[in-house]
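With this grant's support, the team has encoded backbone shapes as discrete tokens. A representative record is reproduced below.
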Amino acid sequence: MRLRLLLSPVPVALLLAASPAWAVTPGAPPPATPPPQGASAPAQNPAAFDPDALYEAGRQLFEEYAPPEVKEEYMFPSKEQWAQLVSRLQAALEGDSLDEMAARAPEARNLLNALRLAGAEGELADWLAQRLDELDAAQQAKSLPAPRPKPAPRPEPGKPGLPPPTPGEPVPYYDLWFSRVKNRPIPGRASELVPTLREVFVAEGAPPSLVWLAEAESSFNPQARSPVGARGLFQLMPETARSLGLDTFLPDEREHPEKSARAAARYLRRLHGRFGSWPLALAAYNAGEGRVSRALAKRQARDYASIADALPAETRMYVPKVCALVAVRSGTNLW
């Protein structure tokens, strides 16, 4: 599911190539500039990518939308090459290394450009844009020192000593993400959707500020979908959606803004009830409840910062991203 253009800054239509054989030859006419578009998002419990389904979707887009001059300059990758690209992204997102995650950014950027060039402005493109955002942040995070506990304030004369310092920052890499999103424009669809989504979250007993999770998940695209099967504003996986009362057949209720919001609010409230903090709830939403529970048990911990480095690299970027978006958009801290 990746596209790699070596010579052209605007890789054309879904040729996720990893070799110069798919690069634009010098002097080839540039393709038309596509309209700009938004982003998209992750999913709760990670599932294996479906390389065959994604390959067929990419091939069909290439055949239907790529201009003739593009087809003259590019060859679509084989299934084997495609599967290798998909596998690299999957391994990076589910793995523990921010370095490996950052290394996948060029391929993801090329693929996103290709999707947009081919006219695939929503769905996969919105999902991939959010993943690219996290891959780029992982590159920044590599240059930062590891989060360390904050020193305890010195006790004032005549006052009892203060308790020991709390462990580290509540959400490692939060400052990095706050700086990334503080001046970011609000997605165009948000103004229409947020008022209704807030009402749904309030009715379900979840903080209304958490509707901004949809920005990180789908850039407020109700039709957004990921290669792992997640769909909708809140990128619910099929099994999770069905457990929350949504129908995932036709029509898929995950693509209904109010119904998906109701399910997401219930799920988030349940996760918060289980783990006791919003950062941990968000980690479970992204990485799965089992992964978070095992990490907490292994380290005998109760807070997100204590287990963050034991979670997938994607989750370590996802949690601070959502917390920063909520803070910027609503002025609310999630801890």
